[in-house]
Amino acid sequence: MAVKHHKKLGEELGPIRYAVVTTSDSRTLETDQSGKVAKELLGGAGHECVFHEVVPNDGARIRKAVRGLLRRDLHLVLVSGGTGISARDVTIATLRPLLGREIEGFGELFRALSREEIGTAAILSGAFLGTSGGKLLACLPGSSGAMRLALSRILLPELGHMVHELTK
User: Fold this and answer.
1) How many domains would you assign to the chain?
2) 90 φ, ψ to 5°?
3) Residue 75 sits in which domain range?
4) Three-state SS letters, 45-57
5) Which of 31, 119, 128, 131 is surrounded by the most beta carbons within 10 Å?
6) Residue 2 domain-assigned (yes or no)
7) Burial class, 65, CB count within 10 angstroms (exposed 0-12 / middle 13-18 / buried 19+)
8) How far from 94 is each of 27, 91, 99, 104, 107, CA to CA, in Å?
9) What is the mean pLDDT of residues 31-51?
């Protein structure tokens, strides 16, 4: 029953406009599988991609790209990659300060569901969802599996409701 309610809210808003930013030193738009999964799933749900970019794992460049997107007319900025523990994984530390409010249950649920698929390595999966300037900002690991899991099992079922709450 709740899913129908959320879907109805999303329909009232029309398509949700989103941007995808992949942070990577090795991927291009052509090889960005997680970005392709995001566009496939969100597009399949009737939402509109307004921007897709691959940015190197450089904090200043990531921050500049995301800040620019947060000023645009969209609802969701989805960032993929750079969420692990290596020295080049700077996405979480770079973008978390941009949040007005973190939706803490997202990261908790994402890691719990990830554990079902990848075991205890899920503790290495940095992920967050929050709000920034009236928009949703999500950071996910760079794998296509992580993107598919986060969208299909968490974000898509709640996206219409969250956007409704931010735009009412």
Assistant:
1) 1
2) -115, 0
3) 35-167
4) CCCEEEEEEEECC
5) 128
6) no
7) buried
8) 20, 5, 11, 17, 17
9) 97
The tens digit of pLDDT for each residue in 66-125 reads: 999 999 999 999 999 999 999 999 999 999 999 999 999 999 999 999 999 999 999 998
Return the CATH number at 110. 3.40.980.10
Asked if residue 68 lies in contact with residue 35, where contact means CB atoms within 8 angstroms, the answer is: no
Distance CA 51, CA 48 (A): 9
How does pLDDT run across 109-166, given as a tens digit for each residue? 999 999 999 999 999 989 999 999 999 999 999 999 999 999 999 999 999 999 999 9
Residue 132 lies in a domain: yes
13 within some domain: no
> Quick check: is 151 in a domain?
yes
Q: How far is it, in rounded angstroms, from Cα 110 to Cα 71?
A: 27
- 72: tokens are 């645009």
Which contiguous run of DSSP H or E holds residue 77?
A: strand 76-80
Q: Rounded to an integer, what distance in angstroms lies between the CA atom of residue 57 and that of residue 26?
A: 10
Buried b / exposed e along 142-152 (16+ C-beta atoms within 10 A): bbbebbbbbbe
pTM above threshold 0.85: yes
Rounded Cα–Cα distance for residues 159 and 48 (Å): 13
